Structure formats: structure tokens, C-alpha cells
Amino acid sequence: MGSQGSKIDFRQAVIDLTSKKGKQDEAFWEQLWSPDSGQGVSDIFAMIPAEDVRRLREDYPKNLASLFYKTLEKIQHARDTPSTLSERKVINCVRLLTRLIPYMYEDAEWRGYFWSSIPTCASWYSLSEGVASFYYGWCISIGKVDNLSLLETCELIWEAGVGFASRPASNAQFDQNRTEILKLLLACLSEVIYAPITDENRLRWVAHFTSAENRHVLPLFTSLLNVVCAYDPVGIGLPYNYLLFNDSREPLVETALQVLIVCLDKDSQPKSDDTGYSDNYFINYLGRIHREEDFDFMLKGITRLLSNPLLSTYLPNSAKKINFHQELLVLLWKFCEYNQAFMFYVLKTSDVLEILVPILFYITESRSDPTRVGLVHMGVFLILLLSGERNFGVRLNKPYVARAAIDVQSFTGTHADLLIIVFHKLITTGNHRLQSLFDCLLTIIVNVSPYLKSLSMVAANKLLHLVEAFSTPWFLFSSPTNHHLVFFLLEVFNNIIQYQFDGNSNLIYTIIRKRQVFYQLANLPTDAASISKSLLGRKGKAREEIIDQLKSPTAHVPPETHAGMFV
């Protein structure tokens, strides 16, 4: 009954804020962060609906300013005297700020309020530095202490891994507290979503938080990185363990991953020294990692998480599956972009194939979903980045053992065969919005082609089918750049014949068997009348006839258009 009464008091306090003007006493504010005001973040979010926040912002701005000031004041008090305050109260304060900040960002004037020099806003400015809230986040994560200044930096790191060998004590409550703090931090850093692209200050939160002005930047970066890379969703492998026990670490890992990606935004770095901020120290520290044991820890962590949805077990759905693989691909891209030594380490180990297979799985699963086009782009760009190095092409010759439910034709061959088959499927059955990736897909095959020792018959047929489809007159003439795709494929054949002729009898046989395709390409008409006739003939053909001609399932493009996709 007491808990229910506190919820009623909390809701009544919110109603009073959105309907009354004037000052409130301390007892009024205590209702908003009472330990019994909510059992979780969902309770607080439900008791402060979006329309109430917007009404408070538009009609009672002084009440909103007072609410921020009082809430932040409570967090600052917890930072200064952590052993004297209820942990639950501070977590409720954090949740309250997390709920309100996004609605503040909707209004340009309130975005400026966070950086105002007005005395009542000065303490809120300290939150922008990430000191008050996150400092207390460490405090309630490591236990009750009287003086935070006595803590060593290593004591603030949450997980063993890069730069820290000892594993600190942890429990479910610590993980929940850290997750709440990181969600508040993520809300603070999300101004870029609401600010217009022309606003030069839209990344000021990220720039400030990742600069030297945040004296906790190193333990924060290390904690986020280690928490993500050390996470093992399967654990000891007990079947259905995720149904029996609540995993408090997964929400922390997902939130830490999102914060880490946001802080690794290189656009937050100043264009000149006039901004008052120095370099992005997250990027700086990531680029300075050089020990092989650290690279091994990072690579194994990313590989373990990327491969998680591909796990196959005798018992259906007996292993826990994670759903933040898109963020993992972004993080892997940033690892390779900001630390070349890490990328070279990945390429010199066979683990690069343990990354390739999950990426191919994700882009295959996402090819027909318009909402996941970004995931496909990220996966293709990662493979393109890796394909520029010789070691990647050499590693592709390792035999592929089917262990993942990748939706491709059954074959016996190497990882190179898998790569070609997946790319063929992406081109022929993918969403039409993926057409811009055709150049990238074929460039990857060109990059690795000099090192492919033995293509299977299935992969060879896929390559020849692409030549057949891309060299049809209506496709070549429908866009001034479509001929580049044929050039890429011819370069693939030239590279394989020149450098790996002996082991590629399947490809040579397929080229000879399909020689008519090359004869037609050599005799392609180039006069204006023939080109017009080809395009008009394309319009007159029924879709079924074209599919029968190409003998392959293809992506849908209306017959009356010349969008570049072939059907």
C-alpha cells in the first residue's frame, strides 16, 4: 500500500508541476525521487507521459528549470556525500533526467539552456561535463565510500581486459545501476539527433565529454570497451539458462556499446583550436592500443558476439541469442578505422573468417528488408575494407564447413565460394535500394580474385550468370555507368586466369561452356538505332519471359523503368 501511495503522490506532483505556478517546498520535491515512487524505469516513464513533459516545457518553463535544478542538486549531493544518501533515490533522479532530456532537445532554446551561464543553470552545466552523474555512477557501482578522491583510477574500471588484468567485484545491482547511468549519458549525448545539420554545436556534448576536460575519460573508455568485449551471452553453456536466470549484464553491454559508438564519432573533433576542446580522447586511446594480448581480447570478444546468432544446438532455442549485431558491426568498423594495427592483426589470423561468416549471414538475412539497408551497407563496407589487404584474399582459400543457417545454395568449397554465392544472391534477389552497392560487391571480388586458388562449380556459374545478366543490351544501355559492372567481372576472370589458372578448372570450363555470352558482348551494337531498339524491346517483354531467359530469380523492377537492376 505504501508503494502504491508513493506512486500516487509522484503522479500528483507531476500534475501539479504542469498546472500550477509558484515555488514548491522540499517535501514536494522529495515525492519525485522517493525510493517507493517506482519499481523500475518503466514506472517513472509511464507516470510522466510525453504530453506532460511538453506542456511543462511550453506552459511552465520555470517549473521545468526548477525540476532540473533540484534533481541535479540531489545527484551532486550524492556525489559529495555518497555514504549518506539512498541509492534508490539517486537512481530515480537519474531516470527522471533520462526521461526529460530528449523533450528538452526538441526545442532550440532549451538546448541552449544546458550551456547557459545563468547561475541556476551552472550546476546543470556540470552534468554536461559528465562528472556529477557518472561520478556517482561509479560510486554506487563500487559500493559506499566517503571520499571519491581517494580512489585510484584502476578502481573505477568495471571489467578486466584492455589495460586492466584484475576483474572487479560485480553483481546484478551494480549492472543495473551502471545501465541507468549510461542511459542518462546516452540521452545527454543525443543532441545531434534533434539539432539541425547546419548547427555547428550539435556535437558539443560528445566533444566536451571525450575531451581532456573530463578527467574520467580513460577509465570510462576502458570500462566500456572491456564490458562489451568480455561479455559471453552463452556462459557455461547450460541449455535454456537464459530462461531460468535473468541476465543483468546484457542491458549493460548493449547500452555501453551504444555509448562507446557515439563517443567514437570523429566528427566531434574540433576543426580548429578555437573551440576550446582538444582531441577526442576516445579515438586517441583506441588508436594507441598496441599489445597483441589486447588485440586478441578485442577480436575474440567481437567474434564471440557476432557469431552468437549463428550458434546451432541439438535442443531448439537452447542458447541465448543477442540482438545488437548492427552496433557490433559499427564498432568493428571503428576499430579498423582508428587502429590500423588492429586491422592488420585481424588479417594475419584465421579469425578474420570468423568475422566474415557472420557478416555474410547478416547481409543475407537483411537483403530483402528495406528497414535494414544500413546494416547491409555496413557489412559490405567492412568486407570492402578488409579485401584491400592480401592476407584476406589468401585466407579465403580455407575450406568452408557449413555450420550456419545461411540461406544459399548448398555447395562444397572454400570461403571464397561462399563470398561469391552470397554476393550473387544479394544482387539478384536483394532489395532494389541495394543497387548502389553493386560496384562495392564486385570490387571486393576483384580485390581477392588474384588469390583464389580453386573456385567451385557453383561459384563459377554464379559469376558467369552475372556476366550474362549485366551484359544484356537493355541493361548496358539503360545507364551510362552500368558497363563498369561488366568491366569488374572481366577483370576478375583476367586475374584468376593470369595468377591462378592451374587450380581453377571449374571456372575455365564454365567460361568455355558459356562462350556465347562473350561473343554477344563482343558484337554488341553501338549505333543509336540499335540502342533504341534494345531499350524498346526491353519494354515490350513480359517479366516472365525475361526471367526464363536469365534462368534466375531476380529482384523486382517495374518493366517500364530502367533503374539498373536486372530482372
| Percent range of helical residues | 55-70%
- Note the beta-strand portion: under 5%
> Which value, in Å, is the CA radius of gyration?
29 Å
In terms of quaternary structure, what is this? single chain
Count of helix runs = 31
Major beta sheet, specifics? none
Number of strands: 0
Helix/sheet category? mainly alpha
Overall average residue pLDDT: 80
Work out the count of structural domains: 3
Q: What global shape is seen?
A: elongated
Unreliable sequence segments: 128-133, 540-567
Distance between the termini: 66 Å
Give a written overview of the molecule.
This is Protein HID1. This protein has 567 residues and is an all-alpha fold. It has helices at residues 2-17, 26-30, 41-47, 50-59, 61-80, 87-105, 108-113, 119-128, 132-142, 172-188, 191-194, 204-209, 217-230, 241-244, 249-263, 281-288, 292-306, 325-338, 340-348, 352-366, 373-387, 390-395, 415-429, 438-448, 457-470, 473-477, 483-499, 505-513, 515-522, 528-540, 543-550. Helix 18 crosses helix 19. The protein starts with a helix and ends in a 17-residue tail after the last helix.
